[in-house]
């Protein structure tokens, strides 16, 4: 299936795409239009952190004209992690089966969402990856690319997870995955939130898959990346890695490895194995690798 071909994802149940916004007035309307054109059956939740530039008002107008669009107005800027958790809870409470993270600024191409939805048919969490074969980043400053690749490499070494792009934010979760990883315990904000959720999913034994995406640097508006966000990710990942090495997570289940079934349908995807509890080795991943068995779904 190419990105331009439309297919039905009715077998997945109800799909919700969550788009956090803060000062995205120039971007929110075109990104929602592209998303609705790419996958017409999905619903959209815009989680706006009381943007002073009027993003919330634009979102309300979109919702007035499209029953597939909903808006969550939040009190203020509380961080990416808090916005997504609020969106997850909103979607879970309303019976959504698959919940997707996507940026508002166009860096995640809505036309590539079908890749994630196709893959989540046989996975519990699908990560859109810039750093697997077929993925990439366009018009991205060198220092941002260095931070992203360096952060993913550091996380792999510290946490023992075989994820090539652990900081990426274009993801599809099954409802049961979000219910099982302990959202109430997640305190991470910024892009460390992405590392946190992926690591929790792997530690719990959920099936995690990476699919290639092309990240495009925003053309309008300002990036939310800051030194504070980078610092939070560094100290949290370091603390988790130290805890892993002293056996802090040894009581969590590490499921037996099972053959991948996704590789036959999605040869450009890479399966992520369950994280070992206490090892200093970081094993490189390949397409069609093995993974942990899936916890029971309700």
UniProtKB/TrEMBL annotation:
Single Gene Ontology BP term? glycolipid biosynthetic process
An example Gene Ontology CC term for this record: membrane
UniProt-listed InterPro entries: DPM1-like, Glyco_trans_2-like, Nucleotide-diphossugar_trans
The Swiss-Prot or TrEMBL record annotates one GO molecular function as: dolichyl-phosphate beta-D-mannosyltransferase activity
Keywords, ordered alphabetically: Glycosyltransferase, Transferase
Positions of the UniProt region annotated as Disordered: 253-298
Annotated Glycosyltransferase 2-like domain ranges read 17-177
Q: Where is the composition biased (Low complexity)?
A: 269-298
Give the CDD domains listed for this entry: DPM1_like (cd06442)
What's the family?
Belongs to the glycosyltransferase 2 family.
Recorded protein name is: Dolichol-phosphate mannosyltransferase
